[in-house]
Amino acid sequence: MKLKRPIAFIIIAIIILTVTGCTTNKKQEPLTRTEFLMDTVVTLKIYDKQDKKILDEAINRLKEIENRMSVTIDTSDVSQINKNAGIKPVKVHDDVYYVIEKAKHFATISDGAYEPTIGPLVDLWNITGTDEKERSTIPSEAEIKEKMALVNYKGLQLMEGNSVYLNRKGMKIDLGGIVKGYAADEMKRIFLENGVKSAIIDLGGNIYAIGGKKNSNMWKIGIQDPFDITGNYIGIINIKDKSIVTSGDYERYFMYKGERYHHIIDSKTGYPSKNEVAGVSIISDKSINGDALSTALFILGVDKGTELIKKLGDVDAIFITKQKEIYVPERLTNNFTLTNNNLKLITNPY
């Protein structure tokens, strides 16, 4: 599935968040399931209810989401939309329509910083992994301009009866920047409906912490150091019933003439985004919101990204810059601990 890739696909990742769970003896170990789905490693951990049927239900739902929304599965709803771009609307499942509707919403409020029709540029750059080796070429200006003409969320039309239409031939939806967030929300829904009150959902770095640890304390989530991708983290945030989604310029990239070209494409330039941001983590109640916003704010940068967060009101963002500064919202400072003294902590007063 062409999503944000975990470090294998992207993290996609994304980013790699390290979850520190409770200290337990063998009888208290969580019920755990790990699968490779949606082009990433999925790990689900339930700390209270020991019922494998809950994990079966969750994994089956993930497979259903992948089969409907993957851009690389020929029979998916998303692939059908792309095949019929400029030809006719395509009727899709309720959940696909919902995710695309949310995708267009975040494209609108971010003025295209998050862009669901980025597919043609994603395909052109083809940044699918982490590669320190030099590429011999990059797309030409003419190729980039040609593909940019096919990227415009305003041409993504949502119609009655769950129909979706791309109004120009060659346009292509890629939900890689939002679908894992939706999937995490669905895992949360399934867990709660089955009475789970303490769990960690990890979809290739998209984290959802349900409840608290068994002693009711908050979960401790480590935020990946974008300057050291071996799993080290720059700080720890304590959360409960929250999603954390991170995007960074180290997740997928290649080298060309000594310069690193990462996978987060700016639709306004056609090139990988260039600004002061090295990584951004979004803390939110809904993971679908955090997924889309992590991409949008990475492209918008600290100032414009902060302005957008201020308008939303119910979402927080932690920015890490290439200048080794970390911007933490004032209301999160009591729950955040900086563990890397090489970074300068700046309180973001919004």
Write up this protein.
The protein is built from 7 helices and 21 strands. It has about 350 residues and is of the alpha+beta class. Helix 1 (about 50-70) runs antiparallel to helix 6, helix 3 runs parallel beside helix 7 (about 285-310) and helix 6 (about 180-195) packs across helix 7 (about 285-310). Helix content is about 30%, strand content about 30%. Mean pLDDT is about 90; it is low at about 1-25. The strands form 5 sheets. The protein has a 9-stranded mixed β-sheet with strand order 4-5-10-11-14-17-18-19-21, with helices on one face. A hairpin with an 8-residue loop joins strand 12 (about 220-225) and strand 13.
Topology:
Layout: E1 5-6, E2 10-11, E3 18-20, E4 31-37, E5 40-46, H1 52-69, H2 77-83, E6 90-91, H3 94-109, H4 119-125, E7 130-134, H5 141-148, E8 156-159, E9 163-166, H6 179-193, E10 198-203, E11 206-211, E12 219-224, E13 233-239, E14 242-248, E15 253-256, E16 259-262, E17 277-284, H7 287-312, E18 316-321, E19 325-329, E20 336-338, E21 344-348
Parallel strand pairs: 1-2, 7-15, 19-21
Antiparallel strand pairs: 3-12, 4-5, 5-10, 6-9, 8-9, 10-11, 11-14, 12-13, 13-20, 14-17, 15-16, 17-18, 18-19
